[in-house]
Amino acid sequence: MIITTTPSVEGAKVAKYLGVITGEAILGANIFRDIFAAVRDIVGGRSAAYERELGKAREIALAELEDWADELGANAVIGVNIDYESFGKTNGMMMVSATGTAVIIDRT
Prior knowledge:
Shape: elongated
Largest sheet: 4 strands, mixed
Distance between the termini: 17 Å
Strand content: 35-45%
Mean pLDDT: 85
Structural class: alpha+beta
Radius of gyration: 17 Å
Order of helices and strands: EEHHEE
Low-confidence stretches: none
C-alpha cells in the first residue's frame, strides 16, 4: 500500500476516490516519564521517552489508516496529514491522528 502526503502518486492515475479515512492513537504518558520530562524541560535537551511514545503513536495511527484503506479496497492513500495533540487534566495524554484519502490508482 502506498501512503503519501502528496495529492497524487507520480506515474499513476487516480482511478477511483474511496473517501476520507482516519487512523488515531491515544497514549497515556507514564508518571515517571512525566517527571523526567519536566526535569529535562528545566535543564534543556530532548525527551527520548516522549519521542519514543510519539513514534509508537504515529506508527499505530498510520497502521489504522492503512487497515481502513485496505477494507475499502484501496491500493493507496494520498494527501496524508499527521496531527499531534496533548490533552487531559495535566496534558498527560497524547493523540496522533493520520488523515488521508483512500484511492485506487492505476499504474498503466
